[in-house]
Amino acid sequence: xxxxxxxxxxxxxxxxxxxxxxxxxxxxxxxxxxxxxxxxxxxxxxxxxxxxxxxxxxxxxxxxxxxxxxxxxxxxxxxxxxxxxxxxxxxxxxxxxxxxxxxxxxxxxxxxxxxxxxxxxxxxxxxxxxxxxxxxxxxxxxxxxxxxxxxxxxxxxxxxxxxxxxxxxxxxxxxxxxxxxxxxxxxxxxxxxxxxxxxxxxxxxxxxxxxxxxxxxxxxxxxxxxxxxxxxxxxxxxxxxxxxxxxxxxxxxxxxxxxxxxxxxxxxxxxxxxxxxxxxxxxxxxxxxxxxxxxxxxxxxxxxxxxxxxxxxxxxxxxxxxxxxxxxxxxxxxxxxxxxxxxxxxxxxxxxxxxxxxxxxxxxxxxxxxxxxxxxxxxxxxxxxxxxxxxxxxxxxxxxxxxxxxxxxxxxxxxxxxxxxxxxxxxxxxxxxxxxxxxxxxxxxxxxxxxxxxxxxxxxxxxxxxxxxxxxxxxxxxxxxxxxxxxxxxxxxxxxxxxxxxxxxxxxxxxxxxxxxxxxxxxxxxxxxxxxxxxxxxxxxxxxxxxxxxxxxxxxxxxxxxxxxxxxxxxxxxxxxxxxxxxxxxxxxxxxxxxxxxxxxxxxxxxxxxxxxxxxxxxxxxxxxxxxxxxxxxxxxxxxxxxxxxxxxxxxxxxxxxxxxxxxxxxxxxxxxxxxxxxxxxxxxxxxxxxxxxxxxxxxxxxxxxxxxxxxxxxxxxxxxxxxxxxxxxxxxxxxxxxxxxxxxxxxxxxxxxxxxxxxxxxxxxxxxxxxxxxxxxxxxxxxxxxxxxxxxxxxxxxxx
Length: 801
What we know:
- One of its GO terms (molecular function) is transaminase activity.
- Helices cover about 40% and strands about 20% of the residues.
- The protein is of the alpha+beta class.
- The longest helix is centred in the middle third of the chain and has 21 residues, at about 300-320.
C-alpha cells in the first residue's frame, strides 16, 4: 500500500457536519419573537427545550434582565477599551462578588476559550509538561497546543485512566518542574465526572502534579455558592489547582472565571495573559447581569434552585430506569446521553423526537467518535415533570423504530459503546440473500472470483493464493494475517457483493506525518509494538485497487451493502479489531452516503495511477504519443541515462541478486515514514522468486554489471494487468542513474513487449508517473474507530518534533 495523504481534520469535520446539516439536525435557527427557556421554536413548531446548557434557567430571571437593561441605559452597549488600561465601571463590583463566591482571587475573561488561550501559556513554564485527558474540551487542547512552539511536551491519556496518567508522571518526574494534568470537571457529552478526589490523592504522591480543570458544565447547579463540581469535591482550592468556571451557561450571563489560590501565579496571569490583555472586555449589560446572578449565588436561594433542578434530574433518571434505552453514563449531572451508534440512526431519532415536539441535541464527531453518535439531553429548571415523562415515553417508542428504519439493532448500539446488552435479539434473516465468509481462497471458485475481482492489483485468485502463502506461519505477529473472503448472493446464486478482508497489525501512526512517526520509532527501539493495533481492513497492506465488487443496480443492492457492513461490525467484535478500514474508492462513489451513515470517516489517499497500453505496438510509439511537454521530460530526464545502465527482466533471481533486491526494497521502506508500516516477512521475496507470475525489472550500471541499483517487483494479473507492486532503489545512485524514472520507463516498455494492455502503477509519485502518460485518479479510504484517542494523540504530537 502506498503512502496515504495526511488527514485534513477540518475537511473531515466539514463533511460530517454537512451530512448532519442535510439531515436537518445541525445548524438550525430558532424562531419566534420571544424565548421562555421552556420551549423553543424550530421550523415553525414550538418544542419542549431539552438542549440548553442554562441548567438553572437564570438567563430568564427578571433580576438579571433588569440589571442588563439598566446598564445599557447608563453605560451603553459596550465599553470599547482594553481592560489593561481601564475596566468599565461595573467590573470591580463583579470581580469582588465572584471572588467572594470562590473565596480566592479570580480573573474574569471574555469567554472560556479566550481564557484558556490566555491562561495556559502564562501558567505553564518552558520546563513543564502537559498531560491532556483525551476528552478534555477542544478549547483546552487548542490552547495547550500553542506551547509546542516553546518545546513544552504535550502528552495524552485515555479518558480518566489514572494508571496511564501515573505512567506519564513517572516518565517526567525527574526531568520536569511541574506536570500539568488538564481535564474537564463535568464532561459535556456524556455528563460523566473527573475523578477529582483520586487525582488529589495522586498529587500527594507526586508533588509536581498540578491540575487545570475546565468546570464550565459543573458551574452553578452544584457546590457551595454554585462554584461547581470540582470545588465541591475539593472543599478548598489548593495552590496546585487552576479552576475555570463559566458565566455563559448556568450562571445566566456571559464571560468566564478563573479561580487561583496561588498568589504569585495569579499575579503572573493577571498582569499579562495574552487575550486577557488585548481582547475586548465584557459589555456593561453582561457585567451587570453577572453581578445580579452573583448575588443569587451568594444567597441561600442558590441551594433552593439547585434542589429544584436535582428533583428534575432524579425524576428523569427514574423514568429512564424503567426503559431499555442505552443511557451511556448514569450519574447525577443534568447531562444525559442516549447512544444510537450509527450517525444515520442518530439523525432519524432526533428528527422523530422533534416531530413529537421535543428538541434535543445530536452528539457527533469530533465531540464523540463517529460510531458513538447519540442524543445529548440536558435537564433544566424550565422542564416540568409532565414533559420530562413525555420525552422518555417518546424516546422509548421511537428508539426501536429509528433502529429498524436505519437497518440496525440494539446489540450493535451497545457494542459501539462497549456496554452489555440488556437483552439479546435473534439474528434477523437475510431475506433472499446468502452470505458466505471463507477463510481461504481455495474455498472460493476461481472463475467467479476472477470474473468479479480479477484484472487489477495483486488479488486475482492466484494472487490471493500467493498472499496467503506469504503471510502465514511466520515468527513475528506482524507477518501473520487472517484472510476473510466475503460473498453475498441472491436466490439465484449470483454474487451481488464480493470482497476480501485482512486482519493484521498496523502501526497507529501509519497515516501520520513523518516527523511524528520518527519520534514514535525512537520508542519502538525498546518496544517494537508501541502504538500498534490490530486492524480489520478491506484489501490489505500489500494490495491497491478496487477491492470490492458490488452490483449497486441489483434490486437488493442496498440491503446487501447494509448486511456487509453489519458483518464487518461482527468481525471487528469477534476479532477485537481497534479500527475498520475500507479502501481505494473514487471521489464520487455510491458507497459515500452509506458509509457516512454507518459511522465511517473519509480520508484522502494519494492519487492512483494507471497506464493504458491498448493498441500500443512499441515503446517508441508510446513516447511519441505523449504530450509535447512530457516528450521533453523524456528527452531531458530519462533518455540521457538509458545508456548508463543495463536493464533486464528476470523471472528468477540468483541468490546474490535476491539479497541485493531485498536490501534495496528495505532502503525504500525505511525512508517512507509517511507510510509507516511493519516490514514484510523475508519469505515474501523468496516466494516471489519461486512464483512464475512475478518477475523483476533490474537496473545495473554498464560498468558494474553485478551491481543492482534498482529493481521493480512486477506481478502479472491474468495477463490483463501488469502490477509493479514494489520498488527497490540504491539511494546513493538515485540521481546518477535517474533510477526511479528509468524503472518507470522500463516497466512500460516491458508491458508493451509482453502485450499486457494496462499497468496499475499504484499510488505515490503521481507527478513522475503523469509525466510518462499515467492517468491519475483521486482515491479515498473510509475509517471507523472505537474511539478518537489515537487520532487525537497523533494530532497532539504533530508539530512537536
